[in-house]
């Protein structure tokens, strides 16, 4: 079992304990808040991700990492798509990224063509997590008063047992988006250590797939780049 799997299991146990402490009513309100936040976050992730990515310098960060792998004399060279594809295949770039890079190569210099798909992916995931976190907090606070009143009508044993169940579900949702973020970083060049850790994880692929399923279930097909919609084989 990898270190990532152990960390996920510890967080799952903490989530179960938190669910027991909060109870069924609080857990129900948190699930409702989470799904409502995800519904809206999936629709505002793109613009927020672009703004946050620009402010945090995600594009420059990616360009710097990728620029170190390409001779500087080729950074601003426009490489014909038919010549770029075999180079990317030889470099082991995931197929979903290759297709985007080859498409961008028709109208962008080499460095931009390779960096843009990574930048778009990271910015989208960043925007999704930022908006989800803010909206979940807001909705949870709005439901807090209702939770206090409803808890008086639920038997204590049912409240605790139901809380454990919903606490587990909620922490799985949260871990799913952590897995999605780790996957985004692992596909960047110069992150071989993270890629190795992820490749040995048995829990990360299904968790990342859960995040993908949640997003698609909200009717937002196409929100995330193809590489996220069909995660590369690890």
Summarize the structure.
By secondary structure, the chain is an all-alpha fold.
Task: Give a description of the structure.
The chain is elongated and about 70 Å long. The relative contact order is 0.19. With 234 residues, the protein is mainly alpha-helical. It has helices at residues 3-22, 24-56, 58-67, 81-90, 95-105, 110-150, 156-186, 192-199, 204-217, 226-229. Residues 222-234 have low confidence and may be disordered. Helix 1 runs antiparallel to helix 7 (156-186) and helix 2 runs antiparallel to helix 6 (110-150). The chain starts with a helix and ends in a 5-residue tail after the last helix.
Q: What descriptors fit this protein?
A:
disordered C terminus; 234 residues; mainly alpha; 78% helix; 10 helices
The number of distinct β-strands equals: 0
**Number of discrete helical segments:** 10
Give me the secondary-structure category: mainly alpha
What share of residues are in beta strands?
A: under 5%
On the 0 to 100 scale, the average pLDDT is 81
Largest sheet: none
How many whole angstroms does the radius of gyration measure? 21 Å
Outline, from the CA principal axes? elongated
Helix content: over 70%
């Amino acid at each position: 079992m990898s270190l990532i799997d152990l960390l996920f299991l510890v967080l799952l146990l903490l989530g179960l304990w938190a669910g027991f402490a909060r109870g069924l009513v609080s857990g129900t309100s948190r699930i409702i808040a989470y799904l409502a936040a995800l519904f809206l976050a999936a629709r505002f992730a793109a613009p927020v991700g672009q703004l946050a990515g620009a402010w945090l310098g995600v594009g420059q960060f990616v360009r710097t990492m990728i620029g170190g792998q390409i001779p500087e004399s080729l950074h601003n060279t426009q490489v014909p798509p038919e010549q770029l594809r075999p180079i990317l295949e030889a470099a082991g770039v995931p197929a979903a990224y290759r297709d985007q890079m080859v498409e961008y190569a028709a109208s962008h210099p080499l460095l931009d063509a390779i960096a843009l798909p990574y930048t778009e992916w990271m910015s989208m995931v960043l925007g999704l997590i930022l908006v989800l976190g803010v909206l979940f907090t807001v909705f949870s606070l709005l439901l807090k008063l209702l939770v206090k009143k409803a808890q008086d009508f639920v038997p204590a044993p049912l409240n605790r047992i139901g809380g454990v169940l919903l606490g587990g579900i909620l922490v799985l949702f949260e871990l799913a988006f952590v897995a999605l973020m780790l996957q985004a970083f692992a596909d960047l060049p110069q992150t071989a250590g993270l890629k190795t850790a992820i490749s040995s994880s048995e829990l990360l692929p299904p968790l990342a797939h859960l995040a993908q399923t949640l997003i698609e279930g909200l009717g937002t097909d196409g929100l995330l780049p193809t590489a996220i919609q069909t995660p590369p084989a690890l």
